[in-house]
TrEMBL record:
Protein family according to the UniProt entry: Belongs to the methyltransferase superfamily. METTL23 family.
Pfam families (UniProt xref): Methyltransf_16
Listed SUPFAM superfamilies: S-adenosyl-L-methionine-dependent methyltransferases
UniProt name for this protein: Histone-arginine methyltransferase METTL23 isoform X2
InterPro entries given in the database record: Methyltransf_16, SAM-dependent_MTases_sf
One MF annotation (Gene Ontology) recorded for this entry: methyltransferase activity
Top-rank lineage group of the source organism: Eukaryota
Gene for this chain: METTL23
Record keywords, A-Z: Methyltransferase, S-adenosyl-L-methionine, Transferase
Keyword Transferase carried by entry: yes
GO terms, biological process: methylation
Length: 152
């Protein structure tokens, strides 16, 4: 959607799942988006593709905060990207699955902050959005993660 609206987009999925990267390529072709570059990246892994990425303004992340054991790898990779552009923000949603799973300690460790955006602030708190039952009875949060330092 961002590419259709004119944004310069780099689309990524796990480098460990080549089939997913093929699906990303096919999706770009089917949506007439030849300008979208597809890159294989794996959270927490330093790769040539990660090192070659230009500075990003916004990282739109979908379905990334699922398994708590992956949270630190995600934030480590985001921290690396923040070194290229300290003003970059990670925008994502998070489905609350357990009160024991929290990003707070990891955000503190990596000198990041998180702003929770209420779903109702942009009309996403209703059922059957885009023909989906979410958020439904689930607790879904919109997150914007950035460096904690206001001076950056």
């Amino acid at each position: 959607m961002a590419a259709k609206c004119g944004a310069e987009v780099i689309l990524s999925d796990s480098s460990e799942l080549p089939h997913c990267l093929e699906i990303c390529q096919q999706s770009c072709q089917m949506n007439n988006l030849p300008q979208v570059h597809v890159v294989g990246l794996t959270w927490g892994h330093v790769s040539r593709d990660l090192l070659a990425l230009p500075p990003q303004d916004i990282i739109l992340a979908s379905d990334v905060f699922f398994e708590p054991e992956d949270f630190e790898d995600i934030l480590t990779t985001v921290y690396f990207l923040m070194q290229k552009n300290p003003k970059v923000q990670l925008w994502s949603t998070y489905q609350v699955r357990s009160a024991d799973w929290s990003l707070e300690a990891l955000l503190y460790k990596w000198d990041m902050k998180c702003v929770h955006i209420p779903l109702e602030s942009f009309g996403a708190d209703k059922g059957d959005i885009a023909e989906s039952a979410l958020p439904g009875r689930h607790t879904v949060e919109m997150l914007v993660i950035s460096f904690a330092k206001d001076s950056l």
